[in-house]
Every structure is written in C-alpha cells, then in structure tokens.
Amino acid sequence: MSTNVLPTYDDVVSRYEPVIGLETHVELGTVTKMFCGCPTDFGAEPNTQVCPVCLGLPGSLPVANRAAIEATIRIGLALNCSIATWCRFARKNYFYPDMPKNYQISQYDEPLCVDGYLDVEVDGELVRIGIERVHLEEDTGKTLHVGGATGRIHGATESLVDYNRAGIPLVEIVTKPVPGLGARAPEIAKAYVAELRDVIRTLGVSDVRMEQGSMRCDVNTSLNLPGAEWGTRTETKNVNSLRSVERSVRTEMLRQAMVLDGGGTITQETRHFHEDTGDTTSGRSKETATDYRYFPEPDLVPLAPEPVWVEQLKAALPELPRQHRARLKTEWNLSDLDMQSILNAGAVELIERTVAAGASPEAARKWWLGELSRRANADGVELEAVGATPEQVAKLQVLVASGKLTDKLARQVLEGVLAGEGDPEQIMAARGLEVVSDTGALTAAIDEAIAANPEVAEKIRGGNQAAAGVLIGAVMKTTKGQADAKTVRELVLARLAS
C-alpha cells in the first residue's frame, strides 16, 4: 500500500493494535503561584502578574505553596494513588522562550502520588485506566505568534511572551500505557479525560476549563501488529477539548498505519493537533529524560506529608462522580441506557444544574439530549459550550409548563438564547412568541375557519372528530403558530357540539 493512501479506520483496527497513554496537565485554582506570592487571575494584562521569583531573577528563592500540595494529594487520593511519605522537587532543564529560568521546577523520580487507577464506564462496560503518577510542577509562560495566518510560529512575523502563567501550580497526571482497547481506543481516551475532568471539578481544585488552557492533554499513540512489541509512540501536544482527544487518537492511528503500510517507520516525536482539520503535523523530536538533565532542586526542602494529614484529606473527599451518577440515576428514575446516553453526551452536570434551577429531570434531559445536543454537534463544540446555560434552559421549560410557550415556539426562543439575545422571557416578548391564550381571539379564529370550511364542520358535527385537524391547522395558521393546538381542538369540538 502506498504511503499516500490513507486506510479506513475499520481496516486499521483489523490489522493493528493501538496502545494509548495520556498525560493531562491541570492548572490548580490557587490564589497565588506555586513558588511565589503572585496572583493567578486568568485574563490579566500580559506580564503584570510576575515577580523576581517566577521570572527567575538572580538571588530569588522559591517557597512551596501548601494549598497546591494539598490539592495534589487530594487528586491522588481520588485516583486511588499511594501518597509518598517523602518526595522532592527536581529541576527539568531545557531552553524555551516561555521558561524564564531556562528550567522548570517539577518532580522526576520521586513524585507525590503513584500507582493509582480511574474506572471509566463506556457503553455500560467498566474500563480501568492505570495511573502511573500524579506530580506537581510549575506551569510555563505563554507564547503568542502573530503576523501569520495560523497562530503558530510557522509563518509568524513576531512572537510575544506573556509570563503571567509562568509559575502557576500545575499537576500532571500520567496514565500507564493502555493496550487492548482495539477500535474503542479513541472513545475510551475521550471518556477517560471526561471522567478525570469531572473528578477534578468535583474536588474543587481547578475549574478545568479546557478552552482556557487550565486543563490540557498530551495524547500518546502507537500501533503494533498483533502479538508484536509495542510500536514507537508519538505525543500529540496540548489537545484542548474532549472531542479533539478522540479525534487525535483516531487521526494518529490512521496516519501511523499509512506510514507502516508503506514500509516506513514511526518517529518518536511531538505532534501538533489542528482543530480545523483534525490532522496532526510534526513538531519536534521527542526528548528522553536524560536530555532534561534532571537533578534535585537545591533551593527547596523535600516534602514529607504526614500520614495523619493524608488520612484527614482522604476522609474529607466529596462524593466522586461515579457514585454521584449512581445516586442521580436512582433519584431521576433512569434506566442504565438513559444514564449512559447522558454520560456519553457529557450532560450530567448540565442536567443536574437545570433540575436545580427548577426543571423536572425529564424535561431537562429532553432539552440537553435533544435540541441542544443537535446544535452542539452541528457547531462542532462541546455541549457545555453550545451557548445556553442550565438556568436559561430551566426558565424556558417553566414557560412551556405554564402554557406560555408550546414546544415549537420554545425552540424559536431557544434559537434566540443561542444567538445571545437574552433570557427566554426577554426573547419571547421581543419576538412576540407567547401563546395566544385569549379565548375571544381564538373563538374568532375558529369561527373564521368553520365559515371557510363548512363541509369539514358538518363532518365533525356528524361525529368524525378526526376531521378537526383541518380546522385546527387553519387556526394555527391564523395565529402564526402561537395557539396551543390542544386548546384549539377542545374549543373547536365544543363550538361544533353546541
């Protein structure tokens, strides 16, 4: 097979076995940075949240952030990890413009949390993803490439560096290699990141907003022939949505199969994922640990979390997502299939918040898994980014339940919500969409329809109630769809029975 011919996905999984691994970076929501007192507010003016410590100026000394250490231990406990009784920070040396010190304070061979797992449910089946390590480090700054068409360095005329992010506490969660997933590898990768995000959000240690970069995922993918050694992996960097995690695994499986089918070899490298096309392109050759010249950080003392403290943190963990979903399933009277549909859509929290805002579980599920999921899929965005809040959906449903809107009119109001026109009541009023409930106006429209269709009226008087649909349609046309069809039917039958 030519290396220029991309195989089908079914063909790839019939001949190759994928192995995946995920490295997820989570910015912690601490008030100050990891090793200094600078604030961590998102969106501040560039280079206004910096000091000699996070800029790495000579003579400055770091001091570890206790809140960040505690948050990392809580993440490790939630992921069933063992917590180290003694560990330390290390210097990871490499030169890059967004590293003001030219090294990163991280953890290497002595991480804070090790050997855990996270259970992920996919299509009713539980898949256990092993966790190699959870360690704490500092984030880098942010490089902005301007003057080009893509926002990347290639084609840019200049690059700008914002060091506000440099030094923010960053937790890295590294899975063990995950073989044996077959065709489900992309789907399970997405499900793992979604479950991990839910766990971290439940702990309250990060807002895990992937679109803002507070949660980023590096996706490792390799292929091997059945029974052969694992293949050479590539690392797709900084994937920033659940949908893109799935797409990046699939894309790399197809690309690597094409290379291998053509007699080529896979290069161990980092690759960039392109949201617009779903493709990956080569970044740089992948370094090994020795290239970073790790050595113990001389300016920080080792960490030795007291076992009593760790046990206190463990006892105070909140109800975790899997247990939470099991409780909601019972409270909402859902079947396994119903709950799986909600989970697959990433709608558990959205529906729960909609119910808390006043909608019934059934109505909330209808909107999020129906019209809103359809719009999210059409726009290629996550459901939570579709443009409506749970509170707005609940208000919309209240208008339907009160009879002020029909389902059809409610969908028109929802269009206005997604377009940013305001809350449902404002849009209903501005667009004049409220159900016509004035019986006088409806009676006049019914009389007009009867006069225009005397033969239909006679059929109804003769007992053929099915014929009422013609008159109901005429009334709905007169009222521009703003009458309640059930109410119109009742009035039509009552009018012709007299």
UniProtKB/TrEMBL annotation:
<dbReference type="InterPro" id="IPR023168">
    <property type="entry name" value="GatB_Yqey_C_2"/>
</dbReference>
<dbReference type="InterPro" id="IPR004413">
    <property type="entry name" value="GatB"/>
</dbReference>
<dbReference type="Pfam" id="PF02637">
    <property type="entry name" value="GatB_Yqey"/>
</dbReference>
<keyword id="KW-0436">Ligase</keyword>
<keyword id="KW-0648">Protein biosynthesis</keyword>
<dbReference type="InterPro" id="IPR017959">
    <property type="entry name" value="Asn/Gln-tRNA_amidoTrfase_suB/E"/>
</dbReference>
<dbReference type="Pfam" id="PF02934">
    <property type="entry name" value="GatB_N"/>
</dbReference>
<dbReference type="InterPro" id="IPR014746">
    <property type="entry name" value="Gln_synth/guanido_kin_cat_dom"/>
</dbReference>
<dbReference type="InterPro" id="IPR003789">
    <property type="entry name" value="Asn/Gln_tRNA_amidoTrase-B-like"/>
</dbReference>
<dbReference type="InterPro" id="IPR018027">
    <property type="entry name" value="Asn/Gln_amidotransferase"/>
</dbReference>
<comment type="similarity">
    <text>Belongs to the GatB/GatE family. GatB subfamily.</text>
</comment>
<keyword id="KW-0067">ATP-binding</keyword>
<comment type="function">
    <text>Allows the formation of correctly charged Asn-tRNA(Asn) or Gln-tRNA(Gln) through the transamidation of misacylated Asp-tRNA(Asn) or Glu-tRNA(Gln) in organisms which lack either or both of asparaginyl-tRNA or glutaminyl-tRNA synthetases. The reaction takes place in the presence of glutamine and ATP through an activated phospho-Asp-tRNA(Asn) or phospho-Glu-tRNA(Gln).</text>
</comment>
<dbReference type="InterPro" id="IPR017958">
    <property type="entry name" value="Gln-tRNA_amidoTrfase_suB_CS"/>
</dbReference>
<comment type="subunit">
    <text>Heterotrimer of A, B and C subunits.</text>
</comment>
<protein>
    <recommendedName>
        <fullName>Aspartyl/glutamyl-tRNA(Asn/Gln) amidotransferase subunit B</fullName>
        <ecNumber>6.3.5.-</ecNumber>
    </recommendedName>
</protein>
<dbReference type="InterPro" id="IPR006075">
    <property type="entry name" value="Asn/Gln-tRNA_Trfase_suB/E_cat"/>
</dbReference>
<keyword id="KW-0547">Nucleotide-binding</keyword>
<dbReference type="GO" id="GO:0005524">
    <property type="term" value="F:ATP binding"/>
</dbReference>
<dbReference type="GO" id="GO:0070681">
    <property type="term" value="P:glutaminyl-tRNAGln biosynthesis via transamidation"/>
</dbReference>
<dbReference type="GO" id="GO:0050567">
    <property type="term" value="F:glutaminyl-tRNA synthase (glutamine-hydrolyzing) activity"/>
</dbReference>
<dbReference type="GO" id="GO:0006412">
    <property type="term" value="P:translation"/>
</dbReference>
<feature type="domain" description="Asn/Gln amidotransferase">
    <location>
        <begin position="349"/>
        <end position="496"/>
    </location>
</feature>
